[in-house]
Design goal:
Blueprint: H1 2-16, H2 23-26, H3 34-45, H4 63-66, H5 70-78, H6 102-113, E1 140-143, E2 148-150, E3 157-163, E4 171-179, E5 186-193, E6 216-219, E7 221-223, E8 230-231, E9 239-241, E10 247-253, E11 260-262, E12 265-270, E13 277-284, E14 302-310, E15 314-322, E16 327-335, E17 341-348, E18 357-365, E19 370-377, E20 405-413, E21 422-431
Antiparallel strand pairs: 1-12, 2-11, 3-10, 4-8, 4-9, 4-12, 5-7, 5-10, 6-13, 13-20, 14-19, 14-21, 15-18, 15-20, 16-17, 16-19
Amino acid sequence: MIRFLLIVLLAAATVMGTQVPSPSETGLARSVTFNKDVLPILQRDCQACHRTGGPAPMSFLTYESTRPWARAMKEKVVKREMPPWFADPRYGDFRNAPKLTQADIQTIAAWVDGGSPEGDAKDKPAPIQWADGWRSNPDVIVSMPEPHWLAARGGGEIKSFTVNSPFSADTWVTSIEVRPGNPSVVHHVIVQVEGDTPERRRTSWGSTEAAATPEFTTMEAVYVPGSQPLDFRFHNAAKLIPGKKPIRIEVHYTPNGKETTDQTMVGFTLAKGSAKRQYITLAPTSMVDTRKVRIPAGEPDWQTRGELTFNQDAELVWFMPHMHLRGKDMTFELIYPNGRTETVLSAKFNYAWQLGYETEEPIRVRKGTRMIVTAHHDNSANNPFNPDPNEEVRWGGLTSEEMVLPWFGVVVDLGSKPDRIASYRPGAAQVSRSAFPAPGATGGRTPPFLPNIR
């Protein structure tokens, strides 16, 4: 009933063009309780991270553990900073998008404004049984060779660990699950097969001056806090893991205030029958002529564009923008052979949250479809992650440098080669001047965290 009233209020405010009343103004704050109204929201949208042993620093499993964070929770959800999600809602539908609605936000705010009461115990829903172990029941597991020690404090760091392949021959898998040994310090994980980067090849674009050397890189799996195991069966597909090649586990660590260790593992579920379709994750390695272009000091809106053309039919099912500290946003736009255009993802970029976006339904692209990727960087003092707005930025793999890596996942026919699926043409990096002037000599600043490498 409470949510119904909130929805009615929101609808009325939209029609009348007036501001939505606060929960305290409507009197709803006095009737919202934790057990009846707030806990179901937390179970659905927050406890995947906010639980004992989870990646978040506090648990929202019980009233006692949640109550001290009530006001902070309200502030974060009202500002839509939590749960983290950066896709523009006007473009695309994503199956892993948080389900926190405006009515949910109003409910949490009403609970806080009403004094954060616990409510009647009989209204409490049954607790979710969060699994402490594997969720995908993997058949094959590999692990970092030994625990990695982390100091209590300091800048974040990215470390790479190489393990021997458990597969003596090329093997089809239907899911991959990354399981951090200590989720509270693991920011994200990328799993790759070493030496499996597709070869370079030259492609003519109709002009000798437009010749390009596209290069694609691939990865097998990625983990971010709250993410589910990558299950390729959702797309009636499987992923091919090359045999006898070392597996590289790259882990981004963030200290949590305590000395600790982590030993991240990766689990593979083997295909039980013959694969019908193949899932491939890839990205062009560079959208910029790194020899000529740098991001100017103080520039708030530096734009980079690149274009690729699909050489075969495919289904787009996943996107993951990747940049570094100055990253601002990234947009993926399709231009179909018949001329129709469609923006399939437009997302702000936040270095603290490296999110992937899983499409609700596959996006079918035909041979000849073009995908335009447009990215922006903010090298000004307006960017809280920027360590020094007075320094021009090179392109490269270090965190202090920049990159534009537009990861995307496709489902294709068996036998498709990653370096043959599409042809890539780098675009020009250029300035899109914003209304904000470049800052003056403000001196360097320290971002919230600055990993040591990559």
